[in-house]
Amino acid sequence: MGVSDKNEYENYKQEVKEKWGNTAAYKEHEQKTAAYTDEKYRSAAVGLDSVFAAFAQCKKDGNSPDSKDALTLVKRLQDHITNNFYNCTNEILAGLGQMYVCDERFKANINKHGNDTAEFVSQAIENYCNGAITML
Question: Considering the domain 6-135 in this protein, what is its CATH number?
Answer without folding.
Answer: 1.10.490.50
